[in-house]
Amino acid sequence: MPGVRYNSGPVNEQPLSPRKLILSVLFSKGRMEALTDGIFAIAMTLLVLELKVPDLPKTIGSAELLHKLGEEAPAFFSFLISFLYCGLLWFLHHMAMHFIRHVKIGLAWLNLLFLMSISMLPFSCGLLGHFLHTLAAQEIYFGNMLLASLLLAAQWWLAKRLKLVNEDEPQAVRAMGQQLMFFPPAVAAAMVATYFNPLAGFYAMSGVLLGLRLWQKLTFKKQTERTRNSLSS
Asked: What pLDDT sits at residue 16?
């Protein structure tokens, strides 16, 4: 079968069972990437459908039109945050797949669950846009974001465990893994902060992401200086 490889092990070992044989298949990542791109494209397009043109007479004045649009600010805010978050997840998935050489069945199923969480984002985005200051709407929204980030991180963890990641650039692989692990704690912090103050979750998530990113940069700088010192000594 073109594009499919098997890890059947040494010749002297017992032949694999049908289940283990299927699980050992290494197949191309191209179709998984194509499906992922398609789901993201649809989900990110559906986000804008929550932005409605005000149902007003065509002869309305500019001031009243702007006032009516101002009432839709929560929907615009929800759209902006959701679109940016989807874009970040798509970018991280795209970068992660750069390091993954092949795909196994378990990784494909995890990716399908990840895409399911992405498909739910237009719903949670619309819910947040209508009930921005409601705790339940915010928790559902952040819960959706947390599920997506956890499933994306789980894909990387499984790919590393199954030795599907190209380790030719160990520093880049380490940095990629750190980037994927930043989002779950940031969104979890948002879910906790929301209980204490409406909209505090967005500030908490941004703060944790910035803090983790700064930690990554400082750690990389120290490692680079340590490597230079060891080479010069």
From this structure: 62
